[in-house]
TrEMBL record:
Protein name: DUF3047 domain-containing protein
PROSITE patterns (UniProt xref): PROKAR_LIPOPROTEIN
InterPro entries: DUF3047
Superkingdom: Bacteria
Length: 264
């Protein structure tokens, strides 16, 4: 049987540090760290940006929420209009909060996710393969469900800890789309602390800075490339502009997100 309390307590020091390091990210993704001093969720959800976003919400009560990560400084997310489009403006000064929406899409054919970014400047100090520097100016985060019996012992322990702290287990899998300056498009970077989290570079370099960049991603194909098997379900999406590791200011604008079902 898996331990039901304090998974890190009975493991080695390395795993303890792994747990501590990953708690912040997973608490934010789990949706249990919302703080009343963050951005006004009502304003966010009533904005033209939110109304232009079309995703199959998990239930009628599901809405975008600004989620803090532990006690860290938060990034700011403000609905606005930018370069002719409704947008969510994200600015970060040593912060790493996110905005998140629970969704419900069954696999294995998860359809297309369309979204856009506008970025003026990248962060030359960031390195997504270095857990001490893994900031991203623009990040779209997808969460997936799946067969949790395939979890490793380490992931089971971490998931139990997350369940205790947040009321939700570790997501079965998390895939992050990023704009990076260092790694080429198509690079998949495993998270330093968990095999359940992968980062995929979908834009690289500065050639398209200062303009809207549009994406249409085949979510099933991207998941298959990152994790090596088909997805079971798509359960959540989040946006995140962070600078907590490198301490470099970061800003981006996110356009509305639109999901289209698979024609298969």
């Amino acid at each position: 049987m898996r331990p039901s309390t304090s998974p890190c307590k009975h493991h080695n020091a390395h795993f303890t540090q792994l747990c501590i390091g990953l708690i912040g990210l997973v608490i934010g993704l789990a949706g249990c760290a919302a703080r009343p001093d963050l951005a006004d969720d009502e304003v966010l959800n009533a904005s033209p940006w939110a109304k232009g976003t079309h995703l199959p919400a998990a239930d009628r009560a599901a809405r975008w929420r600004h989620q803090g990560i532990g006690s860290r400084p938060e990034s700011d997310y403000v609905p606005t209009r930018h370069a002719g489009r409704p947008a969510l403006a994200a600015t970060s000064s040593q912060g790493d909060s996110l905005v998140r929406l629970p969704v419900a899409i069954d696999g294995p054919h998860l359809g297309q996710l369309t979204f856009s970014w506008f970025v003026d400047r990248l962060n030359p100090q960031a390195d997504l393969a270095d857990r001490h520097k893994d900031d991203a100016v623009a990040r779209v985060i997808l969460q997936f469900g799946g067969d949790r019996s395939t979890f490793s012992g380490r992931d089971n322990m971490l998931s139990d800890l997350m369940q205790t702290l947040t009321g939700e287990p570790l997501p079965f899998a998390t895939l992050m789309y990023v704009w990076d300056h260092r790694y080429p498009v198509g690079t998949v970077i495993p998270h330093a602390r968990s095999t359940r989290i992968k980062t995929m570079v979908i834009e690289s370099g500065d050639a398209r800075l200062g303009r809207w960049v549009d994406f249409e991603r085949d979510v099933t194909a991207d998941y298959q490339q990152a994790f090596g098997h088909p997805p079971a379900s798509f359960q959540g999406v989040a946006l995140m502009t962070d600078s907590n590791n490198t301490k470099q200011p970061a800003s981006a604008w996110y356009g509305p997100l639109v999901w289209q079902p698979s024609i298969r």
